[in-house]
Structures are given as structure tokens and as C-alpha cells.
Amino acid sequence: MRTVIIGTRRSDLAVTQTEWVMESLQEHIPASWEMQQEKIVTRGDQILNVTLSKVGGKGLFVKEIEQALLDGRIDLAVHSMKDLPGEMPEGLTMGAVTLREDPRDCLISRTGATLNELPENAWIGTSSLRRQAQILAYRPDLRVKPVRGNLNTRFKKLMEGQFDAIVLAASGIARMGWQDRVTEIISDRVMLPAVGQGALAVQCRADDDEMLEVLQGMNHRETEMAVQAERTFLHAFEGGCHLPIAGYATVKGDRIQLRGLVADPGGQPVLSGSSEGAEGVRLGRLLSNDLMDQGARELLDSVREGIQS
Ligand SMILES: NCc1[nH]cc(CCC(=O)O)c1CC(=O)O
Question: Where is the Porphobilinogen deaminase C-terminal domain (predicted)?
């Protein structure tokens, strides 16, 4: 007998993701176990009026939840893989990676115009430098404005006319049940996804052996391999989702193909490359070295300076 307490942020998306994991977990836990949800408010949820890249980016949504795990107030945490920093605190581990949903980004426009059809100078709402850089590389005439808040807020701002279109992860939209609002799934040839986008990470304490065994049952091996390659690539730049870095791996059998890019937020230049093989960590390192040789470090240093000022 055990009551498993699962921590989640309280946004609709976080709760939906947690409930989805609880449902799949149901098939793997012993019959005598129970599950319970515990909602946690993070700093990232509280600071809604500041551009995320200016207040420290990635760790923001995750720290409080990790502390609750370490304190034993919760036993499991469900995170969007994309929001999970590269390094995990001592004592915690990723017990499972879930089957990845559509990793691509999507465009939601007010008039139904696709990325190609949007009028010149149209305003796009996104706070992601990765999305901004790739939009401007593809359509240099478009203009980008930051947008914060949860998915509901962003959608409302679009409908109020603050933007002509917004760009969001297709997976988040699908989990919210909003597929019918999507104007266009943007090809990953036009917009390479964020590292980990579309996958969920289930985190637990590293010494919780019975939990680790349960989680192993719901781990999705191919997604885990893809994400490992992507995260190794990202980690080499000491970067999070607040930098203009994209990385996306696909897995066929035991072959991994990894593509990555580092771009100037203004859309030029875009440094890109790919690597292929069987070992994710090696591929991630190879590709990051390739981009370093192309000048990625200098490019990112200047982006970091721009964010701080
Ligand atoms: N940046 C916030 C965030 N973190 C995770 C998702 C949902 C997509 C996912 O699970 O990868 C989103 C929303 C978005 O980027 O549109």
C-alpha cells in the first residue's frame, strides 16, 4: 500500500499533462497503490508581466517542484521536457520519458492566413527567440512582439487583435483539445522544434527504487533516445529554451538522426547542421561541435548580452 503524490503546476496545460500521466501510470502501479494530485505555484506562474528570457528562463517553472520532491512532499513530478533544465539536482532522476506527441510548432492566426499568406508586416506574438529567429529567417518582413501568459491568455490576446498570429507548440494545443484553432502545423523544415518539445518527463527521487521500477514500465525508449541526443546538443551551449537554439532528433530502429540550429534572433545568420548514428550523447556532442566551428558560441554570447541589457 502506498499513496503516490504527484506534483503539478496549476495551469490547465500542466494539469492536463499530469492527469494523462496518472492515467498511463494506473496500468503500471500495484493494485493497492493510490495516486493523489498536489498543485504547486511556481515563480514562473507568478511573474506573468515580464518577458521570460529576462527573468532567468528555464528553471523558473521547475525549481519549486523539484524542492517538493527532495523534501518528500511529493513523490512524482510531471514536466514538459522542454522546460526541464539540463542538469538535475542531486537526488532526483528522470524515471520515465513519455511517448512524444507532434514535436512541431503551429501557427494560429486571427484571419486564418497561413505563414505564407500573412500580409507583409503582420505582427506575430511569441516570446521564444527560437521561434522569432526562424520566423524572421523565413519571412523577414514579418514583425515579432513578445507574449507571455498561459495558453488561454495568449489566445485571448490574439483574439483581441494584439497580434495577427501566434506560434505555439502543437503538442500543448493538442493536449488542451484546441486542434480546431490551429491554422497551420509549421513544417520542421521551416521551424525546427525546441529540444524536448512534445515529450513529457516524469521525475522522481533517485533512491525511490519501487517508483523507478514502476516508471520503467511506461518509459518510451525511442523518445528517450531522441531527447537524450537533443539535450546533449543543447547542454553544450549552456543554453535553455530562452536562447535561439533548436534541436530535433528522429529515431528509426537504433539509428538516430539529429538536426540542430543556432540563429540570430533577427533571422540572420542561421547556423545549422545534422548528425546521424546510434549513440545519442555522441551525436549531440558532434553536432554542437559542428555549430561551434560555425561560430555558434560567439553568436550566443552576443544574444546573452542583448537579453541582459
Ligand atoms: N514554453 C512553455 C511551454 N512549455 C511546454 C509547452 C507545451 C509543449 C510541450 O510540451 O513541449 C509550452 C507551450 C508552448 O511552447 O507553446
Answer: 226-291
